[in-house]
Amino acid sequence: MTLRLNLRLHSNIIRKRIFVLLVLIVLGLILFLSIKNDPSNCFLDSVWKDGKTLQEVSENSKLKLHSTSKNVFFHETSCNVNGVIKLNARQSCAIESAALMNPDHNIYVLFTSQVGFRNTTNLRLIDALSSYPNIHFNFLNLTKYAQNTPLENWIKNGELFRSNFVNSHTSDVLRYLSLWKYGGTYLDLDIVMQKPLNTQNPNNYAGAESAKFVAVGIINLEGETGHEIADLCVKDLLENFNGIEWGKFYIYNIEYKRKDRASKFLKI
């Protein structure tokens, strides 16, 4: 009787230990997957230590704060975990058209993931674009990029990474932040240029989605007036960012909410 009771107790202890072990394994797996899938991991500056990541954009000596309007910005904000620089044919066509049509402009292609030339066997599109002297590929560290801007603390607090549409919203944020910092032209990676940007009679403008709505696929902001508009956009983003809302048109908001300051400057 005593032996049977001891065996039963021992069996119960083993089952409990197995149960606890299984629970710990499941919890560990959940934690691992949550960390692995954390969108902020795409933008951390400690993933790759092999020295092959693209030059950080703040180290690009050609790019100076508010020094010229002859900047064109493309942002690639998808999550790239293999660290290999990559663009598809459509994106490459957009970038090449900007470089061809505007040889006197610097074309900056900024990647928020830590990509670089880690696989040189299949980079034909990148190699073709690299042959243009005015195309520059750089890594954009979000934390560094936002330093000394109105978005510095907001980026550090991680509000962007809690968005339901991190990649899209990162693109939204960066188009205004780049123009706030440097001025020039922002282009979506599906905008193909058929004629040069108008530098003879520069002004501030955005593309029109329709007769009523302002689009943000192409935005040009330059000079003191352009910086003021960019500042309004950045501050409106801070006040009204909604991580569950897709495709917020901040210039549209500015136009209607602050007509006294923005609409007289912005040509649509």
TrEMBL record:
Transmembrane segments: 18-35
InterPro entries: Glycosyltransf_32, GlycoTrfase_DXD_sugar-bd_CS, Nucleotide-diphossugar_trans
Gene Ontology CC annotation, any one: membrane
Keyword terms of this UniProt record: Membrane, Transmembrane, Transmembrane helix
One Gene Ontology term of the molecular function aspect: alpha-1,4-N-acetylgalactosaminyltransferase activity
Origin: domain of life: Eukaryota
GO biological process terms, semicolon-separated: glycosphingolipid biosynthetic process
SUPFAM superfamilies registered for this protein in UniProt: Nucleotide-diphospho-sugar transferases
Descriptive protein name: Alpha-1,4-N-acetylglucosaminyltransferase
Source organism of this protein record: Chironomus riparius
Taxonomic lineage of the native organism: Eukaryota, Metazoa, Ecdysozoa, Arthropoda, Hexapoda
